[in-house]
Fold this protein.
Amino acid sequence: MIPAAFEYVRAGSAEEAIGLIGEHGEDAKFLAGGHSLLPLMKLRLAQPTVLVDIGRVTDLSYIRDGGDHIAIGALTRHMDIENSQLLRADVPLLAHAASHVGDPQVRHRGTIGGSLAHADPASDLPATTLALGATYVAQGPNGTRQIAAGDFYQGFLTSSLEPDEMLTEIRVPKMNGAGWSFQKFNRRAQDWAIVGVAAWRRNGDSGVALVNMGSTPVLASSVSTALAGGASIEDAAQQAAAEADPQADLNASIEYRTHLAKVLVKRALTEASN
Amino acid sequence: MEISVTVNGVMHTGNVEPRTLLVQYIREHVGLTGTNIGCDTSSCGACSIHLNGEAVKSCTMLAVQADGQNITTIEGMADADGTLHPMQQAFMENHGLQCGYCTPGMVMAATSLLGENPNPTEREVRIGLEGNLCRCTGYHNIVQSVLAAAGGAK
């Protein structure tokens, strides 16, 4: 399968990339690792007229200690997140979730920024960064702005990024020893989750987010509210789908997804509490 | 667009349409057909090659993205005198192939895996090859082959 024809330009810096996108208008798209965009283009579900390749903007590939958070460059590959000693120590939930994205070949190419900007509710990292309360940094022609993960996801494959804005950094709060769990339920190893759960828990605080339980990644705040109010894990998990709006597909009915969410949240909270 | 790609140690310079997939480039422009196209949707791993030493799926990359980079395909694994790469030898000795269609991708993924984890357990091999499908379902001997190449089954 061959994508529809497009013009290809390569950017050497974020500024250049944003300039090129502005120049080419709304039908232009950023190309990072290409592991979300190219499959869509091959199926002709996406037909951008211009691709601005940001894959060589290597100064946006980094993982740094930012004090209370870890700052991750948007072009950092999944494999580098998975293997980062800094993330394994301070944000182990994210390092672990990254190791479940696709397969090793995909993780050698795919980037965290590309995955988040693609805003697929079935992807692992949008929900994981949402559960962790991450902040995303976007750069546009007029400078940078910070977007809370909770404000970023607007709908299916739709984020609050403007067409001429580029995700440049992801800031993930350190977990400070919180218990955590990542549950991914699928039928084959490399598949997207039928339902997934990213969760952490520390004393009365918790964060729980769901993969593939709606048109966006879903923050299951009712679960956290129940836990904060003293509910048992079993009772809190019953609230798993309170914020969700799951769809049926060939893998699962709405009822099955809702059931799975409760089971997986219970498993996640149990693991995160050990 | 003119690109220069080093494939198995030889630099190839030529013009490609930007939409040319890397696997097409390797098969049709460079003329190396050992890299197979299986699912064409980055699921099966038959098209796995090494990009700067790491396994990637060449059906999900554009040739222009490989401009200036180093690529190794299955044809680049054996020595010039025909001596097989230890992974190829291990696949042969352990019957790690049936129809053979997935084999080039399996060998490329497996060598990349051992580059990152030289002494994997059986489970680590199985997880490490999750991006490669064998529709003969010959996984048992494929895993044995990789363990043998790594220095003996555990």
User: Anything to note?
Assistant: The mean pLDDT of chain B is 96. Chain B touches chain A at residues 1, 17-21, 24, 40-43, 45, 48, 51, 54-57, 60-62, 64-65, 109, 112-113, 116, 127-128, 130-132 (CB under 8 Å).
